[in-house]
Specification:
- The chain is an alpha+beta fold and 224 residues long.
- The chain has 2 domains: 3-140, no CATH class; 148-217, 2-Layer Sandwich (Alpha-Beta Plaits).
- The protein is 58% helix and 17% strand.
- The chain has 8 helices and 4 strands; from the N terminus they run H-H-H-H-H-H-E-H-E-E-H-E.
- Strands 2-3-1-4 form a 4-stranded antiparallel beta sheet.
- Helix 2 (22-46) runs parallel beside helix 6 (121-140).
- The longest helix has 25 residues, at 22-46.
- It is elongated and about 85 Å long.
Length: 224
């Protein structure tokens, strides 16, 4: 047996652990599952989407458990760890994360799985508590008021100055976002922030030449 064979045998033996029992694996995965369930609840309470994505929320909990299992497997053998790196390097995820908050929860889930799989469940628990408090505190801070979108149809395009002047009486902020003229008729889309929305709508509807007015809210960026 050459020196190279002895070195390889000792090196692999040092990174191979056969002491991981079924009870130990079960305990680690159960702890991870409990924290993952906590992440599931926090995401459900914090998210303010119009359409709640339950499948994504479930995937957050599942990712934490899968990550913990991968870390356990990597710890058991360096051969498995190298094979895992090679296998995961060819995986390509095409799903785009559009919401920044979803990305934060995704990293939270992965971090919990890594910590629990590396036998550092205390870090995962403290991390979850700190992130919950941080998200709750930052979410409670007052932000800018979301503007509304006013859609108006006027019988004549020449009536725009009078219409916008009436809008100015009820709004501290307004901005014309779109003008569409067809056959002399004018369609206006105005972003505004009004205090007395109902009174403004009544006043605009009574103006001569105003065919219809609609006021809708949107979940876009807030204009300060």
């Amino acid at each position: 047996m050459s020196f190279s064979d002895i070195f390889k045998g000792d090196f692999l033996a040092a990174y191979t652990s056969g002491s991981i029992s079924v009870q130990h694996i079960t305990a680690v995965l159960l702890i991870t599952a409990l924290i993952a369930g906590y992440i599931f609840i926090v995401y459900r309470l914090v998210t303010k989407k119009t359409f709640y994505n339950k499948s994504f929320n479930i995937s957050l909990a599942v990712i934490a458990v899968i990550t913990a299992a991968i870390i356990l497997a990597v710890q058991s053998s360096i051969v498995i760890s190298l094979g895992m790196v090679g296998a995961l390097s060819i995986v390509r995820f095409r799903t785009a994360i559009k919401e920044p908050m979803d990305l934060c929860f995704l990293f939270w889930s992965i971090a919990v799985g890594i910590c629990c799989g590396a036998h550092m469940a205390e870090i995962a628990l403290v991390l979850s508590v700190v992130l919950t408090v941080l998200v709750a505190c930052l979410d409670s801070l007052p932000g800018g008021r979301t503007p509304m979108i006013l859609v108006a149809n006027l019988a004549r395009s020449q009536q725009e100055p009078f219409f916008t002047e009436k809008v100015r009486e009820y709004c501290k902020y307004y901005k014309v976002k779109s003008r569409n003229i067809a056959s002399g008729r004018l369609n206006l889309v105005i972003e505004l922030r009004a205090m007395k929305e109902y009174e403004m709508m009544q006043a605009l509807e009574k103006m001569e030449g105003v065919e219809s007015v609609s006021l809708v809210s949107h979940d876009g960026e807030v204009t300060f």
